[in-house]
Write a structure and sequence with these properties.
Layout lengths: L18 H6 L25 H6 L3 E4 L10 E4 L5 E10 L4 E5 H9 L4 E9 L2 E2 L3 E3 L13 E5 H7 L5
Parallel strand pairs: 3-5
Antiparallel strand pairs: 1-2, 2-3, 4-8, 5-6, 5-7
């Protein structure tokens, strides 16, 4: 039996059959001529949390390019504790925040080390982040790929970076 360093061909194959469908799904239309999938309204918010994290004595590392982790920043403190920070930028006037199931699962599995950093963005200016942690993120339902939370409730539960 091999457990490390041994790759079996039958297990590690890629299946690209639905790749084109996923790449062009935004171009699908209904019989009435309207877009089948609504225009994407969420865009990545550029916000640097390094200063806030360094002020807490932690060393942050941006891991947002690694898709599927469930967080954007890994931050380690002097004692070696690792914190997972998901950054959500919200346009001024927004009323909700959408979390992927991976983000929710990190919050559920590491509740004392997960931080949701909420940043209000107005034009090209971003506000000071509000960190939400230690809350019940809920249990995703069957087939859920994301959940939506009320922004005002999250802000009320949040506090300064910690």
């Amino acid at each position: 039996m091999h457990f490390a360093g041994h790759q079996r061909d039958a297990v590690h194959r890629s299946d690209p059959t639905d790749l084109m469908r996923r790449l062009v799904k935004e171009d699908f239309y209904t019989f009435q001529g309207t877009k089948l999938f609504p225009e994407r309204k969420s865009y990545a918010a550029e916000y640097e949390l390094s200063d806030a994290e360094k002020a807490l004595g932690r060393m942050p590392k941006d891991v947002s390019a690694q898709r599927g982790l469930g967080y954007d920043i890994e931050s380690i403190d002097a004692d070696g504790n690792l914190f997972f920070i998901e950054v959500k930028g919200r346009a001024d006037g927004a009323d909700s925040v959408t979390l992927t199931i991976n983000e929710v699962n990190i919050g559920r599995n590491a509740p004392h080390r997960f931080r949701l950093a909420l940043v209000s963005v107005e034009g090209d200016r971003a506000s000071t982040p509000v960190y939400v942690s230690g809350v019940d993120w809920g249990l995703p339902g069957f087939g859920d790929t994301q959940i939506t939370k009320n922004l005002q409730q999250l802000l009320a539960a949040g506090r300064a970076p910690h």
